[in-house]
Design brief:
With about 525 residues, the chain is of the alpha/beta class. The protein has 2 domains: about 350 residues, no CATH class; about 100 residues, no CATH class. It has 23 helices and 11 strands. The chain has a 4-stranded parallel β-sheet with strand order 2-1-3-8, sandwiched between helices. Strands 9-11-10 form a 3-stranded antiparallel β-sheet. A hairpin with an 8-residue loop joins strand 10 and strand 11. Helix 2 packs across helix 19. It is globular, with a radius of gyration of 25 Å. The N and C termini lie far apart (about 65 Å).
Length: about 525
Amino acid sequence: MSSKGTFLILLVVTIILTTYTVFRNNQDLPSSIVTLSSVLRLNRVSLYLQNRHLTTPVPTASWNVTSVPSYNGSIVANNVSMPTRSHPGNWSSKISASSRPPSCSPVQNIAYIKTLKTGSTTLQTIINRYGFFHNLSFILNRESSKNGHFYHLPFTEEVAETHFLPPIHVAADDFPNYRNYNMMAVHVRYQRDVMEKYFAPDTQYMTIVRDPGMQWESAFNHFQFHDAILLNLITNSKSSALENDTINALGNSSLVNGSLAFRGCRKKLLHTPVKSGKGKGKGKTIKQKNCSIPKLIEEFMANPNFYQERLRFMTWEGEMGKRWAYARNNQIYDLGMERERHDNMTAVKEWIFKLQDELTLVLINEYFDESLLIMRKLFCWSFQDIAYIAKNVRINVGNVSITGALRDKIREWNAADTLLYSHFNRTLWRRIADYGPGFESDLNYFRNLLGTVLRNCTQEAVKTLWNGEHLYGHQERVPRDDATLFCRTLAESKTELHYRIYCRQDINRTAEACQKKV
């Protein structure tokens, strides 16, 4: 008998047994059919993962609602890195609008909550490019022409008047018509009830999350959390800025002095760069030896509450305490949950369920391409719409060797983010299972497209950039000299693409000035 026939027999037997159990226990038949469907769906996901030698995801029911699960290898993407951006393959046909899912209308109103260190910049450029080519209006901070970010600024009427760039064809002082924006793809905290006042009525809200064991390590470098270990905290213990309880918690000696065990490390990390990179771009990257990032992270994790409290009294980008807010559970914090509630696991789970109800889509960093296929189908976009060339690709990541045990400590420290990631990771795989049998072929098609885009739109040379605010340089691709506008918007930096949008929407700039800039 064929394997197909055997499967059909087993399926019929399973349905009969399930039906019998329903009548015997006086249960509801539809709910049991849903359970059976979930089992079959999980089997499809398991088969997909086995073909890639990946771990099978844990069913939703295994998420304990009364305790914080310790992060173990049973959750998908435990040790899986970002998918490779260049996928060589046979490619001959051109992309066309026919690659869009049939019988649907493209979504053009999107509020993307850009989280930190989650691969969010690459996703931002996808959304920005779509909005640019469809002449859509973006919510942007006009006081920040470089990137348009808001960070902690609330979306109040006052902030809208003082900071919002007006929509296309709306006068700068016509504040009542600062409404019905189509898109947003900047750093801002999620404020659904307020955001709805400014976006078009049918706006879809979305975000991206990442395994905290990887994401927090990247945030550690970005925000230089190591300053809590290395810097002297100069302050008068009698100052009204510090409460007595805080002084006692920090300890007078540690309040003033950085850790003597790491003396000199900050200078070594920031001021001993070596040249690297090829072609025209000459970048710089740190040379790690005695003062390594893993050792500093290990020190931070040995007493995280102590070091986070020190960050409360250190500035970042001119703002006191900003690093304190981002030193723990910064993903769920950006998604609107206040820091004071992060230790209440019941409240955390309720917030996650609220996000599940309110967000149309949550992408997973470790399965970026797979997430984009789900996004394409939900938004009725084409393969061309979701094409990308990765941005902010960190260099020399291989030099950071963090043990699994240390990553587990990081996940425990970020327990709320771990729950957030685990929940939406499972959600993604349920959607992949529901996608249908064409998922794998669509994924192969898409990855072939990415390889073609990379070859046809970019030069072989890679720019390697160094920024003193970060402990790693990053690489950027360079557009071909004869690149089309589509290729150029794919390959150019996030800043250049942002400026195209900002410049077109800012009525105070002339068309000629915009053309000269871009």
